Amino acid sequence: MTKRTDESTSKPQTERKAKQVSSNKHVYIERRPEGDYAVRRANSERASDVLPTQRQAIERARELSPDGRLHVERVRKTSEGTPDRWRKLK
Predict the structure, then answer these.
(1) What's the Cα-to-Cα distance from 60 to each of 11, 34, 40, 89, 90, rounded to whole Å?
(2) 12 φ, ψ to 5°?
(3) pLDDT in tens, 29-52
(4) Contact at 8 Å (CB) between 42 and 24?
(5) pLDDT tens digits for 54-88?
(6) Which of 9, 12, 41, 42 could connect to 3 by a Cys-Cys bridge, CB 3.0–4.6 Å?
(7) What is the DSSP letter of 60?
(8) Where is coiled-coil annotated (predicted)?
């Protein structure tokens, strides 16, 4: 069995794809119009999971990406910002 290589690099396609997946460690937790929370990876078209509470969504995001960087949408209005800003979790 031969491995295909990308024309732009000499690395096999399987190695290239593995590297792309591991570099995408940002996970976002967004409130949806329905009132529940979506867990999404950076640049994804669909949510990885949808959960009823923000706490459950954060726990699920940590399960999906234990060493990833989590970003939570701020859903309350404060004098310092608006809901479209993100806060990072440790």
Answers:
(1) 33, 19, 11, 13, 14
(2) -60, 150
(3) 999 999 999 999 989 999 999 999
(4) yes
(5) 999 999 999 999 999 999 987 666 666 665 566 77
(6) 12
(7) H
(8) none
